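Please check the following for our workbook:

***
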Amino acid sequence: MRRFLIISLTIVGGLILAALSGAVLLFNTTPGKRFIIAQAEPQIATALGGDAEIGDLSGALPGVIILNDVVLSDGGQPWLTIDRAEMRWRPVSLLGDSFHADLIVIEGARLLREPPERDDADEEPEPLRIELPDNLPSISVVSLRIDDFRSELTAAPARLDGAGLLAMGGRRINAALALSSSGDKDVIDAAIDIDPAQDRILVDVTIAAKADGVMAALAGIDEGFTIEASGDAPTNDAKIDVNTIFGAYGAATAEITSDFEAANALAIAVDFTPGERLVDIDALGERIRLETRIEKRENGGAIFIDQLSTGAGAMMGDGAWTNDRRGLASLEAQANFHFAEAFEPDLQAYIG
């Protein structure tokens, strides 16, 4: 589903690019339309992989822009088609370094096969950073609609419909998305509201994917999965509880705590119970426990593993790294591991 959201956001980016280009050129001329399409197609293709083709451009620029008959292909074979993508926005908002759209709609999308893998070999590695953004761009989408998104990845074709909103800027984030498929094989019901001014962080997310749904097919988890996250607390003492089930692979619970106001540290505690597909792996054991802390430091950060216990034994350790303008500059780590008494005695005797 991550790729599904990327697809939606990329189409939105293509709409913005088309609108900005059209504001300069005479929209109703054939050369003007061709120029706008020529600018938008490679941007969409670069973001998603493969090739992109826009069949037609219509709407009343600059406030309304519509892309018709969009085809994304890889190796000459289409993997996604979109009948219509429309955006109604306020171009004047760009003068204030912001973006405001009253409506964004993606209609009649068809996911014909799995998206191609992107080639990120030429991209510069990102530095390891521990921080929450404190100067988010000002973006407002009053209404986002996804109508009649169909997938051919499942045994029976599935249809997804959804709606959402987004408002963010500075350190404020308010986002919501409700999406479901035919027969409720795929369900996303998510609301996130981080508001330092009101000293509140709210997280209420449910993602449920049944075995024969679109999200399970994209994730490669045949039995389906569920993810639930919840939290409602002051930003300087936030706690988020996470519960997950990944089919026959197992289930996990996690507790995430942080001072989101200072945004300089994060603590995570995880319990994982292997499922039937992993239960015979002795090194995992009946339960895995992880307790770790991550801290932000000048030009880098540090991680502390206070506890990692598995069927093989227990480990403690820590590491630290620094960044420079090019990326990761240095990395140091140390760890102590103690075998469980009953785990592979011959191996323990050999290692000493």
About this structure: Residues 2-24 form the longest helix (23 residues). The mean pLDDT is 86. The chain is about 15% helix and 55% strand.
